[in-house]
Amino acid sequence: MRDTVARLRLRAGVFGLAVVFASAFGVAGAKAKVLAKVNGVEITDQDLDIAREDLSGNLPPQLQGADRDRALLDNLIVAVIVSQKAEAEKMGDTPDFARKLAYQKEKLLTETYLSKIAKESSTEANIQKTYDDVAKAQKPEPEIHARHILVPTEDEAKKALARVKGGEDFAKVATELSKDPGSKGGDLGWFTKDRMVPEFADAAFKLEPGQVSEPVKTQFGWHIIKVEEKRTKEFPKLDQVRDQVERYVMQKAEGDEVVKLRAQAKIERFDAPPPPPADAGKADAKKGDAAPAAPATPDATKK
User: Is 0.85 surpassed by the pTM of this model?
Assistant: First the structure.
């Protein structure tokens, strides 16, 4: 526990100041429950909620429940103590601190605003429409359930095929002979054609359920393939992919908002040299035998 708290204290900086500012200006709200006081500064359950969101990823997963909250509260207490000392030494009055504080404010405002945009976009109508658009764009795709026996040589493949044609169970022969450790009894499960190397896929998708292939050579060796079943791959139901669809809707809303705001903003950048004048080449050509220009600086050549 002590090691955990020590690690969390390293993140006290701006977050600790936020707690001080929140308490000083009454941001916590009238209904907040006071959990601790540090030199008269209240730390509330609302402050603890912020700490959970900000710091929980730094806590070991085995630290749960009341122990987790105690560690977070201890970190809040340390943050207030240290930030009060820093303020007493006027460390918050420097231009460097002001720049860092402005950066953190912009970062937090950005995250807060985009979170609002994402939440507003995450409606049932948007989720359903996005799912429907993607589902309509998906073409029906065949897939097969197959087994295989993988061996190093063609001769070994022919011997395996002879055993199968002689009536032995395919899965049993695969278990005994196949060099593919990832397929139990040679079972490859369901797959579409693009999931396999071309030679294997071409041979497998020509077979009907119950049929067994002749030896097929690929970069991995020689295969005997048996198709168990065929079907048309179905697009998953919305309930199965709702989380992914919702994340996409939210991320797209955030991205669209950023693009819109950039388009509306007046942006001036000074991190690159201006391009040469359009007539610069013509002017150089007219100089004829004039002395050559000095070579470009390394910074210029990078551009």
Answer: no
